[in-house]
Write a structure and sequence with these properties.
This protein has two domains: 9-69, no CATH class; 75-179, AhpD-like. 62% of the residues lie in helices and 0% in strands. It has nine helices and no strands. The mean pLDDT is 94.
Length: 187
């Protein structure tokens, strides 16, 4: 489990138990493409660390659920964006989890290979292409005027807000996964 010991469901206090259930019984539990829990019910990926601080972990869990399940981003655009963040941070766990989700929403193996390298693939869909170029700029630290003027008219300012939130959230997870040494194979 990297640097953190697993927290098993039967050992959780009330605050941690509520967060555990929000993660394991919420929208992430339906149709998942990667395991949320290990063999003994311990949370995998970034979620075990959320239990260290249930108030903050709960807020992060809710933000992540909103980004994944309640934004206006299309599933492909969302997963392309997440995979570009994973590439920027070289985050193995995000790549492992979201390549699986990406395949389920139609991202091809060729597109996944380019995204792994942080490259925006040749995307036929103008909305996806705009989202990908905006995220690529955001992971570089800013959206300059040229990028803004080229891509924002395609997607609109509300999508830019959703994308900046997604980039911030998945960058936070990538940092936590790195610091706690969570890998897709170690937990």
């Amino acid at each position: 489990m990297g640097r953190l010991e697993p927290m098993y469901p039967q050992e959780l206090d009330e605050g941690r138990r509520g967060l555990y259930e929000a993660i394991t019984k919420g929208p992430r539990a339906a149709g998942r493409h990667f395991p949320l829990t290990g063999e003994h019910g311990e949370l995998r990926g970034p979620f075990n660390a959320f239990l260290l601080s249930p108030e903050l972990g709960g807020a992060l869990q809710e933000l992540g659920a909103a980004v994944r399940y309640r934004s206006s981003l299309t599933p492909r655009a969302r997963e392309i964006a997440i995979l570009l963040v994973a590439a920027h941070w070289d985050c193995a766990y995000e790549r492992f989890a979201h390549e699986r989700v990406g395949r389920s929403v139609g991202i091809t193996e060729a597109e996944l290979a380019e995204l792994r390298g942080g490259v925006v693939p040749e995307l036929d869909d103008a909305y996806e292409r705009a989202c990908a170029h905006l995220v690529r700029a955001m992971t570089g630290g800013d959206v300059d005027e040229e990028v803004w003027e080229t891509w924002v008219p395609v997607v609109g300012e509300a999508t830019v807000f959703e994308l900046t939130t997604l980039v911030g959230y998945y960058s936070t997870l990538a940092l936590q996964l790195r610091v706690f040494r969570v890998s897709p194979h170690a937990d």
